[in-house]
Prior knowledge:
- The protein has helices at residues 3-8, 15-25, 81-86, 93-100, 104-122, 142-150, 155-162, 227-235, 243-252, 258-262; strands at 35-45, 49-56, 66-68, 71-73, 88-89, 127-128, 165-167, 172-178, 187-195, 219-225, 240-241, 270-271, 274-278, 281-285.
- The relative contact order is 0.22.
- The chain has one domain (3-285): Nucleoside Triphosphate Pyrophosphohydrolase, CATH 3.90.79.10.
- By secondary structure, it is of the alpha/beta class.
Amino acid sequence: MDEGRAAVSRIGVPRGLAERARELAAGGLSPAVPRDAATVILLRQAAGVQAFLLRRTRALEFAPGACVFPGGSVDESDADPAIGEAGWAGPSPAEFGDLLGVSAGRSCALVCAAVRETFEESGVLLAGPSPTELVQDTAVLVQDRRSLLDGSASLAELLSRRGLVLRADLLTPWARWITPEVSPRRFDTWFFAAALPSGQMAALAAAAGPEAGTGPGESDSGTWLRPSAALAAARAGEITLLPPTAVTLAELTAYQDVPSILSERRVIAPLLPRVVVEEGQAWLAMPQSVTYPL
């Protein structure tokens, strides 16, 4: 049995996806177009490497209750060229695009989405007053965070108003995962690794205050966990991890410290799991280059 077939036997799928897989195989279904997204593996050094995980609320349509890294879809405002032209530190959008295998405009939007979503969901802002500095305390940016959450301001507007520079140099490209073709909602998601800036704390959107009108956003809790501890909790049924999250956490267990993770220069190739129907049973097959840890 090859590696791909071994992975198939491990990961079951909901009945709805199994039915869609049969319909897709029969030619009666066209795959949804994936939407670009970005997520940040936020890391800190504390008794080893720890990663910040959010638990998505159970009311969400996509991945309810799952523990995930901060992130989300690319918004139209994330493609604002003003950020790449004036408020950007680190590899240029074109250079970043070469690392990601995409155009300069697309890489700019992905990096901006990664920074914006991380700030919205965890309160951590990868930006500073100069290309060599970082915001030390994001508590003073509570109103800015609210504005991003309710859509009344863009990341470019926030950076311009505060005189901040986006620190693209702090993001290490890690992986690219595409949702299986049978999924009704699909995402083409780039994963980036970044260290928690000194002086900043990760906190849920609810910390912005009840008057913000945003509630807890898409997550109801957040916690720092060692990657091995998160995987152990998932194996024990205490938390739920999506396959890309589980694979990423397993990869992180090979590192002793955060700097060694951030110094990695990985080849970013798209990883596309697929739903396979065999003998009346449907399973999620991981790419053969991937080892599924659960």
